[in-house]
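Q: I'm building a small set of examples for a reading group on sequence design. Run inverse folding on the following structure and report the sequence directly after it, with nothing in between.
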């Protein structure tokens, strides 16, 4: 029996959002899980690889971070290509290439080979996450995006609970078949991405028109609703490079992302090594990898709850600001944590805050840009912000070496940057409800062509 308190449009919206959340979010979460595994498993591998290959902290930090330079270079072109060739084929291509390169990490033996493969891995993965966010804009109205994005990310976090323990188990294969444990880790976590990438060609619909699980009425309503949002929303529609780098809101979103990304990646890629050091080297590598379940669980729960509240209230800025402030408190706790367990607790507090902010941040981004500028705009913001993934690990490695092997200087840097992100978020004007003026509508133009062929729009 349909609840009569809902209008027909609201009933259709609830039905569409529910179906997208239950049909697409789990599939996308599985794909993104392997993306994260193949991107970050180097932090688990480093527990033994760094010693085996005699890589210094700056060498490891540079190699971990150079991934994001490749990511930055190909991010915008990748999203634009996906917009033209379709999500199914392009996401499959991304997965197959990143899986093959990740598995090839088992052949690393010098700093140059480490740098080269990490850089190529960044090129291969570029466009996947912003491509998924763009893909969801084809399916979900703006007022429900935070919740669906959060469902996708929360499911990824839940599935990712097994990433750390799996990495720890794979390290135990050390010596089998003449391979080191870290070599088995790269091989056995990279090959599944290749297999799943080919499966994507058969299971992922390019858009609502190909979704057999949506009724014709639901498809028609969704098409009409998204078209109305594109016409009426107060968004950045002219997405040339000139507008992208002069529009204050885009610059503001990039600034928030790059400072918080620098902080998060500075700690993230050294997290397992930090916990092991704080245990007095008493915890085994597999146990260190396993305890990262705790921050992951906290992050997944907090994101789900916060995203629902964000969608109900529309207070996006509040969630972003509060989330990053709590994340900063977690980093401050890391500076003073006297043992491994309190270090894990501080990491959990950081995950709590960062996940509160994440869903609302990307909801603001997609709503700000609009569907015509989203392909280039999301990729632009994500690529610029992810430069922090290069800066953070490299700075942590340098600061760690210069301070005699300690983490205090790097953790202080991370806490400071997260506080800067908090302040920047406080002044983010996303909606009149946040206390700021309505956002002006810029001149409408072809967003994709503007990014892909900027010379045609030079004044």
């Amino acid at each position: 029996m349909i609840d009569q308190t809902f209008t027909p449009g609201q009933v259709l919206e609830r039905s569409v959002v529910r179906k997208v959340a239950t049909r697409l979010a789990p599939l996308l979460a599985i794909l993104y899980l392997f993306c994260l595994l193949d991107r970050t498993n180097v932090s688990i591998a480093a527990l033994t690889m760094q010693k085996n290959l005699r890589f210094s902290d700056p060498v490891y930090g540079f190699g971990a971070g150079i991934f994001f330079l490749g990511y930055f270079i190909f991010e915008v072109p990748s999203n634009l290509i996906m917009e033209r060739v379709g999500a199914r084929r392009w996401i499959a291509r991304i997965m197959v290439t990143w899986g093959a390169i990740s598995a090839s990490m088992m052949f690393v033996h010098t700093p140059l080979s480490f740098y080269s493969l990490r850089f190529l891995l960044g090129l291969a993965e570029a466009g996947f996450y912003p491509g998924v966010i763009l893909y969801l804009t084809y399916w979900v109205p703006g007022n429900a995006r935070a919740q669906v994005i959060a469902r996708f990310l929360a499911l990824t976090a839940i599935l990712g609970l097994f990433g750390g323990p799996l990495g720890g188990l794979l390290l135990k294969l050390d010596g089998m078949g003449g391979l080191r444990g870290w070599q088995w880790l790269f091989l056995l976590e990279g090959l599944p991405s290749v297999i799943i990438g080919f499966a994507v060609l058969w299971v992922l619909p390019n858009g609502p028109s190909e979704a057999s699980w949506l009724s014709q009425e639901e498809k028609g309503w969704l098409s009409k609703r998204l078209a109305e949002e594109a016409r009426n929303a107060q968004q950045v529609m002219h997405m040339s490079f000139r507008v992208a780098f002069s529009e204050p809101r885009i610059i503001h979103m990039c600034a928030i992302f790059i400072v918080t990304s620098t902080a998060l990646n500075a700690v993230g890629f050294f997290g397992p090594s930090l916990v092991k050091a704080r245990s007095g080297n008493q915890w085994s590598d597999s146990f260190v990898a396993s305890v990262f379940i705790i921050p992951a669980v906290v992050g997944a729960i907090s994101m789900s709850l916060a995203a629902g509240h964000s969608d109900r209230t529309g207070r996006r800025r509040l969630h972003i600001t509060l989330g990053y402030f709590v994340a900063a408190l977690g980093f401050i706790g890391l500076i003073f944590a006297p043992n491994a367990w309190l270090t894990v607790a501080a990491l959990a507090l950081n995950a709590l805050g960062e996940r509160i902010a994440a869903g609302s941040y990307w909801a603001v981004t997609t709503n700000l840009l609009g569907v015509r500028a989203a392909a280039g705009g999301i990729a632009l913001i994500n690529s610029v912000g992810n430069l922090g993934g290069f800066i953070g690990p490299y700075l942590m490695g340098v600061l760690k070496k210069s301070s005699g092997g300690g983490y205090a200087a790097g953790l202080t840097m991370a806490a400071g940057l997260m506080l800067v992100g908090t302040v920047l978020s406080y002044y983010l004007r996303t909606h009149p409800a946040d206390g700021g003026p309505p956002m002006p509508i810029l001149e409408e133009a072809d967003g994709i062509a503007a990014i892909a062929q900027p010379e045609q729009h030079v004044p």
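The CA atoms of residues 50 and 56 lie 7 Å apart.
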